[in-house]
Amino acid sequence: MRNPNVRLALLYYVLVQAAQSLYSQNPLAALVEIIDGGDDAAVGVVTGAQGVANLMAAIPAGILADRYRRDFALRIAACVGICAAALSTYTLWYAKRQHEHDENEHNTLGQRAYVMLVLSYASWGVFNGSVSGPLEALFGDSVETGSRSFVYQLKSALRTAGNAIGPLISIVIFSVRGDVWRVDDLSLVMFCGLALTVCPIACLFFFSDEKSLGAESEAFGAADTDEITTPLVVEDEDEDEDEDAEAPRRCQSTDSMVSGLGSPATDTRPFKYRVIPYLVATSDMLTMLGSGMTIRFFALFFKNAAHMSPSAVQAVFVVVPLGISVCAMGAQRLAARLGRCGVVILCRIAGVSLLVAMTVIDPTKNKVTLLVVYIARSWLMNCHSGLTKSLVNDFVLKRHRGFWNSLESINAFSWCGSAMLGGFLVRMYTYETTFLITAALQGLSIVPIFVLLRIVPAEVEGGVAAPAAEEDSD
């Protein structure tokens, strides 16, 4: 917690989530629906474009972070963010202007504004993909192995709490301006978010590889093998003398950057430790596939099916992230007793059950019950994300963290791809049908975590305890 990179990353996550909750979440979904004539599928397309762009940017950014420097990659990402903010600002101004035109021109101008929204949010996908791998890798390099669950749950709690800031600001704006779903009001909310992006983008210029930790942040089990832990930034001994001395310095072990994601040739730890990140990633991907189908449509469900006002919908999305933040710290404490995998399993079983319950509640007659069930489900399904993230970083070798964390973009891509599918499912069937499909996928995501119950060692003071199960050999 005293590491400067850790403190700055925690601040970044709060600020960026606050900004995104204004320009990229519920207001965006409502704006797209209005511009495109009430089509929920159009919301999925915007989200899908963002996911494709995220995937295309994230893998190269992760490789860049491992091959050269994490902070160098983050500075490039900051420049991308500046461009994305400028493009989005112009797009919103254009959408607002087209809405003020004559009704006869509205459809043509609306289509143009929609295309521009797709492009501008694709640029945010590039930004998010460029940041995620390098920043998560540097964060992991700056936290001591064996202490990650608390720090990662704190990070999860803070970034989730940041999601409440946007809805709070939105409630004020909507209340003052009549509390109706209008393009002018939605644009104003989103302009506030774009203005706030200046702060997190500025943070990206101040991270430093030199402030990361050494051997104490290496993966669990590396000390018991031939794996050699070196500082994050090293000088190449056999560089040509005339090579530019000012060029970014390369990170350790770059020769096996991609091939060393747990293969026996480059990682001699027991197989069960190498397989942990793959099982966690599989579970997270299934969860994200399910979540993507519904998360963009909960606000529209409350708007269209429950007939809630803008400020009422935003109030729900203030309560949800604040509750997740509290539950996240409670989940970390519970993990000390039940283990990280045990907590994840319990939370997901309860969350999936509550989502199924939502499908049988009448949104107009039992609105309060519906909201209580939705809020409880959201708390349980999202409070343990820091635990799974800490597992990945505890069992991925330090030299591969940039690449592994960039693979989170595949989750983002699957999330956004399923959002496109979710939009068409809502159009063809109902919101409730889509919720049931989400519940099925999220239920399936519990299976890989069950496999980990006897593999993952418990965290102890100053390190990680060996598991009770007998050591495997290759």
Structure description:
This protein is an all-alpha fold and 474 residues long. It has helices at 4-23, 26-35, 40-67, 70-99, 106-141, 148-176, 183-196, 198-203, 271-294, 298-304, 310-338, 340-358, 367-382, 385-395, 401-406, 408-428, 431-444, 446-452; strands spanning 459-460, 463-464. Strands 1-2 form a two-stranded antiparallel sheet. α11 packs across α13 (367-382). It is globular and about 65 Å long.
Name the helicity range. 55-70%
Distance between the termini: 36 Å
Q: Structural class of the helix and strand makeup? A: mainly alpha
Gyration radius, rounded: 23 Å
* SSE arrangement, N to C: HHHHHHHHHHHHHHHHHHEE
Any idea what the shape is? globular
Which stretches of 5+ consecutive residues score pLDDT under 50?
Answer: 102-109, 226-265, 460-474
Mean pLDDT: 80
Number of helices: 18
Count of individual beta strands: 2
Which strands sit side by side, in order, in the main sheet?
1-2
Sheet with the most strands?
2 strands, antiparallel
Strand residue percentage: under 5%
